[in-house]
Amino acid sequence: MIKLLALGASTSSSSINQQLASYTAAFKNIYDWETRAEQKVWQDKPMLLLSTSPGPRGAATVMESGIATFPRIGAQLAASFSLPSFYEQFSKNGIKDLTHSSHLSDAISAFANALNQ
Predict the structure, then answer these.
(1) Could you give the C-alpha distances from 84 to 28, 39, 71, 92, 113, in angstroms and in order?
(2) What is the pLDDT of residue 10?
(3) 55, 75, 85, 107: which is deepest, by most CB within 10 A?
């Protein structure tokens, strides 16, 4: 499934969520089976990796796992961004905190630059 999505795209963005300090069971199951069939699941395409959570770490554990493992399976990790304390930091108008908003803009710019290479 992941490979089929990646084949038709020139880029990739992945938003990963965390459950019990790891990938969700559904994502982990798909991820495990996809890497058995094809090691380069992400097809060597630029990726923007995103995460958030209601807690103060912003799904940091699963983000660290993605940063460590996705490049080994074909992600050209251009940038990543994690938003902590989602319910306090985000509103219908976007990210409330200027520092986090700036970091997201930087990540998007880095991703855009990777697309132009």
Answers:
(1) 22, 31, 23, 16, 25
(2) 62
(3) 75
DSSP secondary structure, 61-109, as one string: HHHHHHHHHGGGGTEEEEEEEEESSHHHHEETTEE--HHHHHHHHHHHH
The enclosing domain of 33 has a CATH number of: 3.40.50.360
pLDDT in tens, 37-67: 878 888 888 999 999 999 999 899 999 999 9
Please state the domain count of the chain: 1
Q: How much is the pLDDT for 103?
A: 98
Q: What's the pLDDT at 13?
A: 59
Is residue 21 classed as helix, strand or coil in its secondary structure?
A: coil
- Residue 47 host element (H or E): strand 45-52
Q: Is residue 1 part of a domain?
A: no
Give strand pairing partners of 91: 94
